[in-house]
Design a protein that fits this description.
The protein is α/β, with parallel strands linked by helices. The protein has a domain of 98 residues: 3-Layer(aba) Sandwich (D-Maltodextrin-Binding Protein, domain 2), CATH 3.40.190. 41% of the residues lie in helices and 16% in strands. It contains 14 helices and 14 strands. The strands form 5 sheets. The protein has a 5-stranded mixed beta sheet with strand order 10-9-11-8-12. A 3-stranded parallel beta sheet has the order 4-1-5. The chain has a two-stranded antiparallel sheet with strand order 2-3. It comes from Oleiphilus messinensis. This is Amino acid ABC transporter periplasmic protein. Keywords: Signal, Transport.
Length: 340
């Protein structure tokens, strides 16, 4: 028994030593190199896509920019790695990217078996179906025997099989590597239906040769909480990414925006404002960054409402309503723990 106790104690010491050596490696590496390497999609309007000048834009991109603003005080300190669905997790696991912010669904299997942690949800979504209006289809329950375009390496493959099995229907899958390829195949008539997260369907529809020829069906067949992910084993980095996203949500909840952030920092006596904007010291220190990290995020990137509206909402070509992504007090489910 004494020998077992000594062995257990030795194992505990070794584990503690290993943990202390590994702790903070991503945080420290990003800080040392002076920029964040962020994994994004190969091109999905509204989420992560290059404009005609080669600049990356989108709600996922703004998560990357918020983290850079928090760490460096400069939202531009980001380099982007475009990844398709099949290669995204390998890129994160291998250290090719520091952060994966690529319309990725948080699931139990991914959270437990891939060595990654999801740092929150920046878009609540659900899987749907898009068809050509000429088919005259009004419901997904009319799709028995259809050929369906689908992106390989995504949860949509599993959801699709589950849904059709539950409905007693059959389908013919046409699996392609990228969302852009699925849209082109659908546009060319190679499949009757395109399935993906509903937000992605709206993004892909505007890329069709005749966007008005397609319609998104009403059924939503899954829960797709999309959010940024980091490698497990680096709590300091995990905390920074998580609270960079939460800060944008909390700022909207408190009425802090890029338009009034300077005035509120100067004159607001609201304790919550003062903590978020770094007037009251201590919040940044807990994350290993300057106390004004929240101010830098809101000033340079915006609050959650601002990044939603310009990228996927009414201020964008997608015109997606807030829906579930409205704040908790406005009928949605978006919610940030308090900054205190």
């Amino acid at each position: 028994m004494a020998k077992l106790k000594h062995l257990a104690a030795g194992a505990a010491v070794l584990l503690a030593a290993t943990t202390s050596v590994q702790a903070g490696t991503t945080f420290d590496a990003v800080k040392k190199k002076g920029f964040l390497q962020c994994g994004v999609s190969t091109g999905l309007p509204g989420f992560s896509n290059q404009d005609d000048k080669g600049n990356w834009k989108g709600i996922d991109v703004d998560v990357c920019r918020a983290v850079a603003a928090a760490m460096f005080g400069d939202a531009s300190k980001v380099k982007y790695t475009p990844l398709n669905a099949k290669e995204r997790f390998t890129a994160l696991q291998s250290g090719e990217v520091d952060l994966l912010s690529r319309n990725t669904t948080w699931t139990l299997t991914r959270d437990t078996s891939l060595g990654i942690n999801f740092a929150g949800v920046n878009y609540y979504d659900g899987q749907g179906f898009m068809v050509k209006k000429s088919l005259g289809v009004k419901s997904a329950k009319e799709l028995d025997g259809a050929t369906i375009c689908i992106q390989a390496g995504t949860t949509t493959e599993l959801n699709l099989a589950d849904y059709f099995r539950a409905q007693g229907m059959k389908f013919n899958p046409l699996s392609l590597d990228t969302s852009d390829a699925t849209a082109k195949a659908f546009d060319a008539g190679r499949c009757d239906v395109l399935t993906s997260d509903q937000s992605q369907l709206y993004a892909l529809r505007i890329q069709l040769s005749k966007p008005e020829s397609a319609v998104v069906l009403p059924e939503v067949i899954s829960k797709e909480p999309l959010g940024p992910a980091v490698r497990q084993g680096d709590d300091e980095w995990f905390n920074l990414v998580k609270w960079s996203l939460f800060t944008m949500l909390e700022a909207e909840d408190l009425g802090i925006s890029s338009k009034n952030v300077d005035q509120l920092k100067r004159s607001s006596k609201n304790p919550s404002h003062m903590r978020v904007l770094g007037v009251t010291p201590g919040m940044g220190e807990k994350l290993g960054v300057p106390d004004d990290f929240g101010y830098n995020i809101v000033k340079q990137v915006g609050n959650y409402a601002e990044i939603f509206d310009k990228n996927v909402g009414e201020g964008s070509p997608l015109k997606i309503s807030r829906g579930l992504n409205a704040l908790w007090k406005d009928g949605g489910i978006q919610y940030a723990p308090p900054v205190r």
